[in-house]
């Protein structure tokens, strides 16, 4: 995935590096991501998880990506700890990508990957571009 | 801390005769942070529900080919409406955090249209609040997304922190 969508760029997200075939997305600290004083907004964390999940799926699909449209079907986020106003990382992991459905998990963390702020599963519908 | 004085349950977490003004709260929050970025606006509120709006904006787009909004801002709007629905029912603001939130994207939001998020707190316990919400574009029978979530009440200590403190 070479270019992130306008929402992700506006939120200060970019690809940090690629690890085990999936991009690690980093979100810079900014007021745009702030929720309660001193902490990230839960919606910003969910938004970062979604971008990481979609990026992982794009990478997984490889050349197939050009011929399909990815539609998010649903997401379930569990919040594990509050997010400080520091650079925040997320990576998705494709559990299964079939012909029509893809199941992806993603985690978001800050200082230590062992202490995730939140995790999610997402389901996607894959539709052939006509 | 709330000390219920009436109602059919002695354990009712709802304060009698108190109100949470979502309009004022949104007016304050819309100048700051993530809620300011997504352009959150107040629409309406009831005893256990709040309705917010988010005008379409190019910074919120997920698919530049079509102009369809990213799902992130829709989650944020639903999360905020749901959170405020708890305070509406409780009758006062009280620190809480999202425990989990599930969103089903029924269809893509129509490019250029304002997204409206209605959410209600359908069960309020001492420590947990159960919420559900619907995002739509004016006709709630034609939803963009459905949400279900749980908020957990927390102590004020540590809920917010000043910028001078180390993160």
Automatic annotation (TrEMBL), chain A:
Q: Which InterPro entries match?
A: HotDog_dom_sf (IPR029069), PAAI_dom (IPR003736), Thioestr_dom (IPR006683)
**What are the protein's GO molecular function terms?**
acyl-CoA hydrolase activity
Pfam families annotated for this entry?
4HBT
Q: Mind listing the UniProt keywords for this protein, alphabetically? A: Hydrolase
Residue span(s) of domain Thioesterase: 38-114
Asked whether the UniProt record includes Cytoplasm among its keywords, one would answer no
Q: What is this protein called?
A: Uncharacterized protein (TIGR00369 family)
Query: What is the scientific name of the source organism?
Result: Novosphingobium hassiacum
* Species classification: Bacteria, Pseudomonadati, Pseudomonadota, Alphaproteobacteria, Sphingomonadales
From TrEMBL, chain B:
Q: Which residues form the Thioesterase domain?
A: 67-139
Check the record and name the SUPFAM superfamilies matching this protein: Thioesterase/thiol ester dehydrase-isomerase
Q: Which Pfam families match?
A: 4HBT
List GO molecular-function terms, semicolon-separated: acyl-CoA hydrolase activity
**Keyword terms of this UniProt record:** Hydrolase
Mind telling me which InterPro entries this protein's record contains? HotDog_dom_sf, PAAI_dom, Thioestr_dom
Q: What is this protein called?
A: Uncharacterized protein (TIGR00369 family)
> What species does this protein belong to?
Novosphingobium hassiacum
Q: What is the lineage of its organism?
A: Bacteria, Pseudomonadati, Pseudomonadota, Alphaproteobacteria, Sphingomonadales
């Amino acid at each position: 995935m070479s270019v992130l969508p306008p929402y992700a760029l506006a939120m200060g997200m970019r690809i940090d590096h690629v690890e085990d075939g999936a991009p690690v997305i980093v979100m810079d600290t900014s007021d745009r991501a702030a929720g309660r004083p001193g902490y990230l907004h839960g919606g910003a964390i969910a938004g970062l998880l979604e971008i990481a999940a979609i990026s992982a799926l794009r990478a997984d699909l490889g050349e197939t990506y050009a011929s399909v449209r990815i539609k998010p079907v649903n997401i379930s986020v569990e919040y594990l700890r509050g997010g400080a106003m520091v650079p925040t990382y997320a990576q998705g992991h494709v559990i299964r990508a079939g012909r029509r459905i893809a199941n992806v998990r993603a985690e978001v963390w800050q200082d230590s990957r062992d202490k995730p702020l939140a995790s999610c599963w997402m389901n996607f519908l894959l539709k052939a571009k006509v | 801390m709330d000390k219920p004085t009436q109602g059919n349950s002695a354990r009712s977490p709802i304060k009698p005769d108190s109100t949470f003004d979502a309009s004022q709260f949104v007016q304050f929050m819309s100048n700051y942070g993530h809620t300011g970025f997504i352009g959150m606006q107040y629409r309406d509120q009831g005893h256990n529900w709040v309705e917010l709006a988010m005008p379409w904006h190019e910074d919120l787009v997920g698919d530049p080919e079509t102009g369809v909004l990213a799902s992130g801002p829709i989650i944020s709007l639903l999360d905020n409406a749901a959170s405020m629905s708890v305070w509406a029912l409780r009758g006062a603001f009280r620190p809480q955090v999202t425990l989990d939130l599930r969103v089903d994207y029924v269809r893509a939001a129509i490019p250029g249209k304002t997204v409206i998020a209605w959410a209600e707190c359908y069960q309020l316990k001492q420590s947990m609040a159960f919420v559900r919400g619907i995002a739509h574009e004016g006709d709630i029978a034609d939803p963009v997304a459905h949400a279900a979530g749980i908020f957990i009440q927390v102590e004020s200590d540590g809920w917010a922190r000043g910028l001078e403190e180390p993160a």
